[in-house]
Design brief:
Helices cover 43% and strands 10% of the residues. It starts with a helix and ends in an 11-residue tail after the last helix. A four-stranded mixed β-sheet has the order 4-3-5-8, with helices on both faces. The protein folds into two domains: 173 residues, Spore Coat Polysaccharide Biosynthesis Protein SpsA, Chain A (Alpha-Beta Complex), CATH 3.90.550; 242 residues, no CATH class. The chain has 22 helices and 14 strands. The chain is globular and about 90 Å long.
C-alpha cells in the first residue's frame, strides 16, 4: 500500500536524508536535551543564595511578597523519628535498658530511647521595645517549663507561615484582622507538620502525671482537637486533619462583614463539625497567663513583673505536689558529707519559698484556691529510699572507688600498695555497699542480689510516661547540672536566700577530690578491679552518668538549633 497525503510527503522527506545527516541531527537533539536537563535541575538552596544582595525600595517593601530564598530562618518539618544524641561512644538507645547489666557493648551504656513530642507556639514581636523584653522572658519561661515536662518546644513566626502552601490564599482573602492572625498561626504550624500548638503564655502547672499532659506527651493525634473552655490557646492535630481544615477555610473564606474571628466558628457552622474538629476535656493542669486573664486576676501586677510571678507560681506549685518535703538520700552520713553537700545546697534552694514573688498571696490562674508558701519545705536525710509520692528525692551516686575511699579509714586506694588493696577488697570489703544500703528493707526485701536493686534504681532515675516526677539523680562525676531545665523554674540562689550552710569536713573533701581525679584520669589500676567487684554499684553509677550526660547534650543540641531564631533564650544560650 502506498502512503498518501502528508504522510507520503513525510516518508519522501525522510528518504532524502542521508544516514550521516540523520545521526548528526539525532546527536544534536541528545546534547541539547542533556544540557537543558542539567541546568534546570541545579539545586538553588537557601544556603547557596545567602550571599545574594537584594535591595528593595522602602516604598514597596511592605507590599512585596519576598521569595522564599530571601526569608528569615525558618524551622523545618521534623525528620523521621531519629535523634543524633541517642547513640554515642558512651551510650546507645535500647528498649532493654531496664534489664540489669544490659549494656553488652563494652563500656557503652544502654539508655531508654529519646521520646520528646514537639510543641509549637507562634510569636510576632510587639513594636513596643519594653513589652518585647517582657514577652521574650515569657518565651524563655515557656521553653524551659515545657522542656522540663518532656516536650521539645519551638517558637514559630511569620517566616514559617509565609512558607506554607496556603499562605497566598490567606493573604488575598478578605479576612478580618483577628481571623487572619489566627490563620497565620495555623499556617506556621501546618508548615512544620502539625503536632501541638499552644499560646506561649500557657504553661504546664500541674503534676507530670496529669491526664492531659500525659496524652499530649504520647504525641499520637488522629484528629484536629481543640480543648473545652480554652478558646484557641491549645490545639493538637495530625498533618492530614489540619490540612483538611485549612483547605476548607481558605477555599470558603467568610465575608468580612460576618466578623468571623476564628477557625472554630467556621467549623461550628458545618453539618457535622465533630468530623472536622473534636473537643478535648478542659486542661486543668495548664495555667493561662494571656493578657485578658492577667488583667482580670492580677490587677495590681506591673507588666514587667509577670515573668517573676510565673516563675514564683511554678516554684510554689512544685512544692505543693510534695507535702512531706524533700528527701536528701544520705547513706553513710558520717563518711559521705562531702559527697552529699551539693545535693544539700540544691535541696535548700528548692525547699525555700520563692523570693522574688511580686504577689506572694496570689495563686496560679488554673487554681481557684491554694496555700501560699509561708515557710520552707521540710528536708530530711534518710539513709535509704522510701516508698512515697509525697516527697521529692535528691540522690547522688558515688563510683565504687569513691565509696571505698570515703568509707574506710584503715585503707587508702590512692596511697596503699596494690597487693594490700586487692587483699583488702577480696577479704574485707562488702560487694555493692551503696546500692544495698539505699535499697535495704523495708524498701526492698532482704536477701535480694544486686541486679534487681540496680533495675529499681534505674526505674527511679527514668520515670515512666504518665508517672509522677519524684526525683533527680546525679553522680560524684557529673554533679547537678541543668537543674532549671529539669525542674521547669529557677530556684533562688543561696545568696538570695541569705543562707550559709555548714561546709563538709576537710578530710572528706580531700578524699573525695582525690577519688574523682583518680577516676577521671584513669591512673589508678585498681579502678578496674573495684568496678568488677562492685558490678551493681558500677552499673547504676555508669547509667546515671550516661543519662545526665545525654540530657545535657540533648538540650545543648536543641539550644544550638534554636539559637539562630533569637527568641526566648537565656544568658547561656545567647
Amino acid at each position: 500500500m502506498r502512503p498518501n497525503g502528508s504522510l507520503s510527503a513525510l516518508v519522501a522527506g525522510a528518504q532524502s536524508i542521508s544516514t550521516r545527516r540523520l545521526i548528526l541531527f539525532l546527536g544534536g537533539i541528545l546534547v541539547l536535551s542533556t544540557t537543558l536537563l542539567l541546568f534546570t535541575s541545579v539545586n538553588l538552596s537557601t544556603e547557596s543564595l545567602r550571599t545574594v544582595s537584594l535591595e528593595i525600595p522602602d516604598s514597596i517593601k511592605g507590599k512585596l511578597h519576598v521569595p522564599t530564598v530571601f526569608k528569615p530562618a525558618t524551622h523545618t518539618p521534623p525528620p523521621p523519628a531519629k535523634n543524633s544524641t541517642a547513640s554515642t561512644e558512651g551510650w546507645f538507645a535500647s528498649w532493654s535498658w531496664m534489664n540489669p547489666f544490659s549494656s553488652g557493648q563494652g563500656d557503652r551504656i544502654a539508655l531508654p530511647p529519646i521520646e520528646r513530642c514537639s510543641i509549637y507556639t507562634y510569636y510576632e514581636p510587639p513594636e513596643d521595645k519594653v513589652q518585647a523584653v517582657v514577652e521574650d522572658k515569657m518565651l524563655l519561661a515557656w521553653r524551659r517549663v515545657w522542656w522540663a515536662y518532656g516536650f521539645k518546644p519551638m517558637i514559630l513566626g511569620p517566616a514559617e507561615a509565609k512558607t506554607s502552601g496556603f499562605y497566598e490564599m490567606v493573604n488575598r482573602a478578605p479576612y478580618v484582622p483577628a481571623m487572619k492572625k489566627e490563620l497565620m498561626r495555623l499556617l506556621a504550624w501546618n508548615y512544620v507538620d502539625a503536632g501541638i500548638l499552644v499560646n506561649y503564655r500557657v504553661l504546664p502547672m500541674g503534676p507530670h502525671d496529669d491526664d492531659t499532659i500525659s496524652s499530649l506527651r504520647r504525641c499520637k493525634f488522629v484528629y484536629m482537637n481543640r480543648y473545652k473552655n480554652f478558646d484557641q490557646k491549645l490545639y493538637s492535630s495530625d498533618k492530614v486533619s489540619l490540612n483538611k481544615v485549612l483547605m476548607y477555610v481558605t477555599e470558603n473564606p467568610p465575608a468580612a462583614d460576618q466578623n468571623v474571628t476564628s477557625v472554630e466558628e467556621v467549623i461550628a457552622n458545618l453539618p457535622k463539625p465533630e468530623e472536622w474538629m473534636r473537643e478535648g476535656s478542659y486542661p486543668a493542669a495548664l495555667a493561662d497567663y494571656t493578657p485578658e486573664v492577667v488583667a482580670d486576676k492580677y490587677k495590681d501586677l506591673e507588666p514587667a513583673q509577670l515573668p517573676g510571678l510565673v516563675n514564683a507560681h511554678l516554684h510554689s506549685t512544685f512544692l505543693s505536689h510534695y507535702p512531706d518535703g524533700m528527701l536528701l538520700l544520705s547513706p553513710f552520713p558520717d563518711k559521705f558529707g562531702a559527697l552529699h553537700h551539693p545535693a544539700l545546697e540544691l535541696a535548700n534552694r528548692i525547699a525555700s519559698c520563692p523570693v522574688n514573688n511580686p504577689l506572694p498571696e496570689s495563686c496560679p490562674p488554673n487554681l481557684r484556691k491554694c496555700t501560699p508558701c509561708k515557710k520552707p519545705a521540710a528536708i530530711s536525710s534518710p539513709d535509704h529510699l522510701e516508698e512515697t509520692t509525697k516527697s521529692f528525692t535528691l540522690g547522688t551516686i558515688p563510683h565504687p572507688f569513691t565509696t571505698i575511699e570515703l568509707a574506710n579509714d584503715d585503707v587508702s586506694l590512692m596511697n596503699d600498695p596494690e597487693k594490700t588493696l586487692l587483699r583488702y577488697i577480696r577479704r574485707k570489703s562488702v560487694r555493692d555497699p551503696w546500692i544495698k544500703e539505699v535499697t535495704k528493707s523495708p524498701y526492698m526485701k532482704s536477701g535480694l542480689g544486686s541486679p534487681p536493686r540496680a533495675s529499681k534504681i534505674k526505674e527511679l532515675v527514668v520515670p515512666k510516661l504518665g508517672s509522677k516526677f519524684l526525683s533527680i539523680w546525679s553522680t560524684d562525676k557529673e554533679g547537678f547540672k541543668d537543674t532549671e531545665w529539669t525542674l521547669g523554674f529557677v530556684p533562688p540562689t543561696l545568696k538570695e536566700l541569705k543562707l550559709q550552710l555548714p561546709g563538709a569536713q576537710g578530710n572528706q573533701k580531700k578524699k573525695l577530690y582525690n577519688a574523682k581525679m583518680a577516676n577521671v584520669r584513669g591512673k589508678n589500676k585498681i579502678i578496674g578491679f573495684v568496678e568488677g567487684w562492685n558490678t551493681g554499684d558500677t552499673e547504676v553509677w555508669k547509667f546515671v552518668n550516661a543519662w545526665r550526660e545525654r540530657r545535657v547534650l540533648e538540650r545543648s543540641k536543641w539550644t544550638a538549633a534554636e539559637k539562630k531564631y533569637g527568641q526566648g533564650l537565656d544568658k547561656e544560650e545567647r
